């Protein structure tokens, strides 16, 4: 690249500058004459290097072709090929001649892709399970309320395998224990009705005895009547007003004993 500066006035000097660049060399900047001299030197030097590189490449190519030809043509005579049979006949005699062509063992297919695919499927299933659980979680933004009919088995019951189900089972077992213990108190402290043969007790006496055990006498009586373990008149029992009401035990001593044994069984 040449930069020339000219002035139109007479008596002015023309300055001509040149910039020359060569790859992997320092740029040449200066007056045109000096740069041209240096440029010629660089061209001669570059041509010399190019010639050396070309000659080296041709020598290497010639050497490689010579090696390939030497590998193709055997340099050992027939006597040398037959020499292993004369020196070590035992080794050659062990080999059994086979008429069938040599079988190549099949390559074992890698299970890498199948394993990766199974891992991805497993993670996808875990993701779907997590999304389904969030739909059932009340505190999640993805919660979707479900509506069950009153005749469905899932109506009013906790989800299987949850802590809520475990607490519900524990509570129901505790209430069953309280009801059976109440029936046992009625049988021990009541009197037997000659007509029905059931054990009976007044609400006043039962209230006095059972209040030392629990203050929830009325609630347990209502629960026991729902399960057809006891019976009494009226929907509710009140102190002082219903003290004369009779509470009858509907379970026989054998049934009561069987229920107590089943309750104590850890499998239940």
UniProtKB/TrEMBL annotation:
Q: Name one GO cellular component term.
A: sarcomere
Q: Name one GO biological process term.
A: positive regulation of transcription by RNA polymerase II
Task: Give the Gene Ontology MF terms in alphabetical order.
Answer: actin binding
Q: What InterPro entries is this protein classified in? A: Abra, Costars_dom, Costars_sf
Query: Region Disordered: start and end of each range?
Result: 49-106
Which Gene3D superfamilies does this chain map to?
Costar domain
Q: Where do the Costars domain residues begin and end? A: 173-250
The protein in question is named Costars domain-containing protein
**Taxonomic lineage of the native organism:** Eukaryota, Metazoa, Ecdysozoa, Nematoda, Chromadorea
């Amino acid at each position: 690249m040449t930069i020339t500066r000219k002035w139109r006035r007479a008596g002015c000097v023309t300055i001509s500058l040149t910039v020359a660049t060569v790859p992997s060399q320092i740029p040449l900047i200066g007056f045109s004459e000096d740069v041209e001299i240096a440029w010629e030197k660089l061209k001669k030097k570059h041509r010399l290097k190019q010639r050396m590189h070309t000659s080296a490449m041709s020598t290497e190519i010639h050497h490689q072709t010579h090696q390939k030809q030497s590998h193709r043509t055997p340099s050992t005579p027939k006597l040398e090929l037959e020499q292993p049979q004369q020196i070590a006949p035992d080794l050659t005699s062990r080999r059994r001649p086979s008429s069938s062509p040599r079988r190549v063992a099949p390559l074992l297919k890698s299970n890498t892709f199948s394993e990766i695919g199974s891992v991805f499927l497993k993670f996808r299933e875990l993701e779907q399970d997590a999304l389904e659980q969030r739909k059932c979680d009340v505190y999640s933004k993805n919660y979707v309320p479900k509506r069950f009919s009153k005749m469905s088995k899932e109506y009013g019951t906790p989800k299987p395998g949850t802590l809520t189900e475990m607490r519900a089972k524990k509570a129901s077992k505790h209430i069953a224990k309280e009801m059976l213990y109440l029936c046992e108190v009625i049988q021990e402290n009541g009197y037997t009705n000659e007509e029905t043969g059931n054990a009976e007790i007044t609400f006043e006496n039962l209230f006095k005895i059972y209040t030392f055990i629990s203050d929830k006498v009325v609630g347990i009586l209502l629960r026991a009547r729902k399960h057809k373990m006891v019976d009494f008149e009226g929907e509710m029992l009140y102190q002082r007003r219903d003290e004369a009401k009779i509470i009858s035990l509907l379970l026989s001593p054998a049934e009561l004993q069987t229920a107590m044994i089943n309750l104590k069984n850890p499998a239940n």
